[in-house]
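Continuing the batch. This is chain 6 of the set; chains 1 through 5 are on the previous pages. Same settings as before, nothing changed between runs. Recording input and output for traceability.
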Amino acid sequence: MATTIFLVRHAEHELLGRVLCGRMPGVSLGEAGRQQALRLGGRLQREGLAALYTSPLARTRETAAVIGQQCGFAADIATEFEEIDFGRWTGASFDRLNPDPAWQSWNAERASGRPPGGESMAEAQARAVAGVRRIEALHPEASVAIVSHADVIKSVLAWCLGLSMDFHARFEIGPASVSAMAMWGTGAKVLWMNEAVTS
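Output for chain 6:
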């Protein structure tokens, strides 16, 4: 028997696709995001969750709060699943970042790169994998949801699949999507990725 981990990306906010928000404060869901969160709650309610965890940032906590209301319990904060620390890039627009050679290098070499003054993808992956291992041990043979961020979710899935983080751009983790993996002892497998919840 295995623990099923649902990896949920937070719902949309109004800066999505325009600004590298990272850990900047005050990034909250817009109306579209709130509707997405409601649909996520309905989807996950059918899974018989035993627990719900969330990154400490506002957009994940707001998404998790809506899911938790429909599932009947509150989310616990799990700092292992916080967004990557993008250092000096935090809050920059993608229009400004895209021509920057350092940004281009980071996106081409995620396995070894590091944002200026920030956290490497390897460091983010190490803490996130430690987090799913901790949660699997706490909830053996149960179903658990974790609300986090695209790159953090990608890092966990890449670990499970044995992929280098240099391949991060080869699969998508969209806003308000659900991916799933099973974990048991030293084993793990991906069940599905990037399910868009539309109803």
